[in-house]
Design brief:
The protein is of the alpha/beta class. The chain has a domain of 240 residues: Rossmann fold (3-Layer(aba) Sandwich), CATH 3.40.50.720. Helix content is 42%, strand content 16%. The chain contains 12 helices and 12 strands. The protein has a 7-stranded parallel beta sheet, sandwiched between helices. The protein has a 3-stranded mixed beta sheet with strand order 7-9-11. A two-stranded parallel sheet has the order 8-12. Strand 1, helix 1 and strand 2 form a beta-alpha-beta unit. Helix 2 packs parallel to helix 4, helix 4 runs parallel beside helix 5 and helix 8 crosses helix 10.
Length: 358
């Protein structure tokens, strides 16, 4: 049975990845989820699988060398999937230090612990081991022209403390691959959306605010463009890179779903109007009058767009979920999990697990 060490597995993308892996492999794999349960880590995301015999959770900070080394010492880890990161740009602007601490130094700890566990006396590594570092398209900077895209060869040009910290962590992984021939891959993905996303991010924020009759804030003129990737498509791509990707390579994972932020908000409003029954009192107040333009974010990149040509050519991966389908699936999930949203927005989700994992 192959054992996966997943960092940040209680977060949005990490928890979706764990659900995907159990759906695909069931009892043929073992997953160890390591998360320090910051505000973005929510074990409610994994409630349905927490009692599986082939799943375990360890509350630990990836910056804690002793805790991470202990996990490697006590388990034969075959795969590391490294999601754990501070990821919200606005928070990075207010407090860059924590982003450097977690994203850079935490990645260094993970690399060293995996290297120490997997390295043989001759400097080679145990067969079949692989470390996958999950990164972002934001490391590439900003695209101004339509028809231009980020490729794996695009020079890094980060513009926020968040993207700079992720670029730094990418460079660390690259250095280990080059210096030690450490068995790793890097993936750079576009904006994810889907179930379990923390409501500070654009799509769940707009869904939640619209349903509550609150203002729908949009930065600047609302014309910043992002490439949107449904989170389960991302999970599938990560699994494919782990199993089929060539060692030491970087793979861009994009959704072919470029949208302006204002388009996203309008699509959500229209979709909610279509999906809510006339008897639902919330339907009456969901309209474009709720849209409010706010002061633009500092250093706000204008456009991101990934060309996932390499992963398509080598592995046959492609984004299966187009945005209109994905946004309906996401809204349906939020309708079915309104208690989850209430728990997150109230902060109640932290109380139970904080007490449990003191």
């Amino acid at each position: 049975m192959r054992t996966y060490l997943v960092t940040g597995g209680a977060g949005f993308i990490g928890s979706n990845y764990i659900h995907y892996m159990f759906k695909k492999y069931d009892n043929d794999i073992r997953v160890i989820n390591v998360d320090c349960l910051t505000y973005a880590g929510n074990l409610e995301n994994l409630k349905s699988i927490e009692h599986r015999e082939n799943y375990s959770f360890v509350k630990a900070d990836i910056c804690d060398k002793e805790a991470i080394a202990k996990i490697f010492a006590e388990n034969e880890i075959d795969r590391v999937v490294h999601f754990a990161a501070e990821s919200h740009v606005d928070r990075s602007i207010k407090n860059p230090e924590v982003f450097v601490q977690t994203n850079v130094l935490g990645t260094l700890v993970m690399l060293n612990c995996a290297k120490n566990s997997w390295e043989l006396e001759d400097g080679s590594f145990k067969p079949g081991k692989k470390f996958l570092h999950v990164s972002t398209d934001e490391v590439y900077g900003s695209l101004e022209e339509e028809g231009t895209y980020f490729y794996e060869t695009t020079p890094y040009d980060p513009h926020s403390p968040y993207s700079a910290s992720k670029a730094s962590s990418d460079m660390l992984v690259k250095s280990y691959m080059d210096t030690y021939k450490f068995p790793a891959n890097i993936t750079n993905c576009s904006n994810n959306y889907g179930p379990y996303q923390f409501p500070e991010k654009l799509i769940p924020l707009i869904i939640n605010n619209a349903l509550s009759g609150k203002k729908l804030p949009i930065y600047g003129d609302g014309k910043n463009v992002r490439d949107w990737l449904y989170v389960e498509d991302h999970a599938k791509a990560i699994d494919m890179v782990q199993e089929q990707g060539r060692l030491f390579e970087t793979y861009n994972i994009g959704g072919h779903n470029e949208k302006q932020n204002i388009e996203i908000v309008n699509i959500i409003i229209e979709t909610l109007q279509e999906m809510l029954p006339d008897s639902d009192p919330r339907k009456a107040h969901i309209n474009k009058d709720l849209i409010t333009y706010v002061e633009d974010r500092k250093g706000h990149d204008r456009r991101y767009a990934i060309a996932p040509d390499k992963i398509k050519a080598e592995m046959g991966w492609y984004p299966e979920t187009m945005f209109k389908e994905g946004i309906r699936l996401t809204i349906e999930w939020f309708f079915e999990h309104e208690d989850w949203m209430k728990s997150v927005t109230s902060g109640d989700y932290q109380k139970y697990y904080t007490e449990m994992y003191k």
